[in-house]
């Protein structure tokens, strides 16, 4: 499927975005099942969608690890997840992000770039 390091990085980036989508679905499932209990949450279609996207994330990331060092790939995956999820949650769920939060994300991204590259 992929045969280059560049292709593996595309898989890592895609996996990070799929993780973000999965987390957004989990948040939606949590909101939709408020007060329904654990069984009510497990039966939420949003939860099932979230798990589906997590599964795709794991598959793509595992495939990327055939070509990349986990010590470099995982920080990039995490950085994409942290940053994309924070921004998407602020937009979709109106979760607040302060200037300090944005600066923290920037510090995380710079640190991960230093570790991974």
Fold topology:
Blueprint: H1 5-32, H2 37-42, H3 45-64, H4 70-92, H5 99-116
Helix pairs in contact: 1-3, 1-4, 4-5
Task: Note down, in words, how this protein is organized.
This protein has helices at residues 5-32, 37-42, 45-64, 70-92, 99-116. It is mainly α and 117 residues long. The protein has one domain (5-116). It is flat, with a radius of gyration of 16 Å. The two termini are 24 Å apart.
Give the C-alpha Rg: 16 Å
The counted number of beta strands is 0
What proportion of the residues is helical, as a percent range? over 70%
- Span between termini: 24 Å
Number of domains: 1
The coarse silhouette is flat
Q: Main β-sheet, in a few words?
A: none
Which spans of ≥5 residues are poorly predicted at pLDDT below 50?
none
Round the mean pLDDT to the nearest integer and report it. Answer: 92
List keywords for this structure.
117 residues; mainly alpha; 5 helices; flat
